[in-house]
Task: structure prediction
Amino acid sequence: MCGIVGAVSKSNIVPMLIDGLKRLEYRGYDSAGVAIVRDNEIERKVNVGRVADLEADIDFDRFKASTGIAHTRWATHGGVTRDNAHPHISQNNVAVVHNGIIENHHELREELMSKGYSFYSQTDTEVIVNKVDDFINHGDDLLAAVQKTIKLLKGAYALGVICLSEPGRMIGARSRSPLLVGVKPGEAYLGSDMSALIAVTNKFMVLEDGDIVDINQGQVTIYNNQDQLVERDVKTSSLSANAIELGDYHHYMQKEIFEPGQAIADTLEGRISANSVLEQSFGHDAAEIFDRVEAVQIIACGTSFYSGLVARNWFEKFGVRCDVEIATEFSSRAHVVPANALVLTISQSGETIDTLTALDKAKQQGYRYSLTICNAAESSLVRASDLVFMTHAGPEIGVASTKAFTTQLAALLLLAIVLGRRKLLDQTTEAELVNELRSLPGKVEQALSQDKEIQKLATRFVDKNHALFLGRGLHFPIALEGALKLKEISYIHAEAYPAGELKHGPLALVDSQMPVIAVAPNNDLLEKIKSNIQEVRARGGQLIVFADQESGMDADAGIEVIKVAPVDDTISPIIYVIPLQLLAYHVAVIKGTDIDKPRNLAKSVTVE
Ligand code: G6P
Result:
């Protein structure tokens, strides 16, 4: 949700800023802008639309500087206009890029207006830049001005600030929104995440909440929220610049749908032995904590929430009490906290503010232990949790999450096994499950081989405005995820229902115009879902059924059957989601939507 990149160097930083913005564009893509300190002015270029539109506007031979900040926006305060695009600027003296929301911007705006400041945008950010300018006018240098300003801010922010009077200096600050400092001899950078900086450096420092960084002619100094000098470790990112290249694929989402075989193999590597799961892969203290855990509370958003819903089936099957809740809903109510409960957050980005807020709430309310399953090392969730299990999905760029989901499921099954072995899960079943997990990459490839068949099927959705997804048990969350994928990228209204609930309402929607997608693996619920499929057929609904080759279901009038290779019931959700991802992808290709950057959405949602 908004991407920040900033640079102080001895050479021209504009191409690097634009490249960084392109790599951050998945975070927000309503508008983009860049500001540089140049001769006697701060020069600013902004445009609505994509970074490519901004780039097209820049005369790279003329627009050059060694200090600058840039931003790609996902609108919160104020519509998508040039005036609202960042960087924001005050009196041609200070420029600011901001990610987050300033809750008390009204009061600050009034105070600044009473001092004669006027405002050209509707953003909350403009108060920050004017306040910094105000302090500078009263004699502060840039660092002191930002230090004083952030003490007045309520809300969440990551900031990059430059000013005309101190070329070669850039201040960064963060509170509840992510910000990294990239380092290299004589140069330093700010970035919302490492993808923005990886083309120039793989060395970075993570700012902690409340930190301010002073980048002055390439020298980096960090202060904490008490304005005390602090040291932050310099880390080496394992991200490779190529990992975020598109290669031969048409879209990142397509690339990422095709990657889970490797991603799951990477997620399992070093975490399983021949017959069992290695519980130390959840952290040093994992065994001690897991011995005490009596219940699991899962909190997550979006696709990550659906992986939690799948996992609940595994936890409870193995005798571990488990609840799952959407993060914002979890935060909205009081809880009866079970004794020795583990709060488990699931997140691709590790920066989803709703999940972070819910984790804070859970800790305040007495949840004793915390674990995160996350795909971003060094993220806020990783730092806020007692135990950490990294999924190794690699960077996920497409806004609609795909390979992150499948690797989360693999990680969650590992966790269900280590907790379950303390309850109902015996060694033989554990060994069988480990074997099944190991077979997953091969099974993923089989599922992907149906790509062409699914592409053909997608043509049926072109003129549809609605679709219904059905599933039962372990596969109801898969139906939910299939519906989410379709609505996110093809803008077709899609709803998922537990198949058994069909007769309690949604059946009224079924007619010959309504595609109904059923997930029907070969398990003990198959006969029940077959009955539900008949209920749809009897009403003329157009059925597409994803079924096991051995389920005895065949194509017929009004029913198309996509046959999925046989797979063990427990791991089957990890396989059955793949054809649904492919279906959503191909429908969106036919509809010509912006697949990797669907309208109104952002990948990393860092505002509440
Ligand atoms: C956004 C993304 C979704 C994602 C959700 C949770 O809405 O568009 O794809 O599932 O956030 O993100 P997280 O990073 O916490 O998994």
The chain has a mean pLDDT of 94. Residues 3-243 form a domain with the Glutamine Phosphoribosylpyrophosphate, subunit 1, domain 1 fold (CATH 3.60.20.10).
